[in-house]
Amino acid sequence: MALPAMADRLDDDLNTVWEATWDQRGTPSRLIRWQQPIRYRFVDERETRQRETVVAALTSAAEAAGVAIGPAGASDSAGSQANLDIEFVDEHSMGESVSCVVNHRSRAFAITSARLKLRPSEAWSCAHHEAMHVMGVLGHPSGRTVLSYFPWRRDVLLPLDRLMLSAWYDPALRPGATPFELLWAAGLRVAQQ
Known about the structure:
Structural class: alpha/beta
């Protein structure tokens, strides 16, 4: 790759990573992330057709981040209890403009639990987008990522999504790292490509 093209790509990718740290109010936020395996459960028995799509998206995101994921177990041990609830909601229960949403609970920048709500008809188009949010990436950047509201591909994680997740979960970054620290980790990964 020619140096000017590589510099442009690095600049575009890092701008997207920077935008991904901004919340809905336009404020950069510190990194929150899972410090434990993710154990998911479906809240109800509806929409079994969409479950595979959602689990595939969550698994893909967790693998890119290096976080263990699996269904919650039937036992009462702490390691088998659900910390991610997945709920399919009625088509109009979240309003017209909201198809899917993730809510986190965290302590000391560690995600302790989350709840993912999806409209069944939108699961195919928002599962990967919401999987990124489940992993703690809050923003909606304009670059080539499933987090973007622009029409990029939505049925798989894009290369920049994988890069972002691996940087977000870089062991060298402490929980609560600043967006500047994330840019450093992401920049190293982009430069190595």
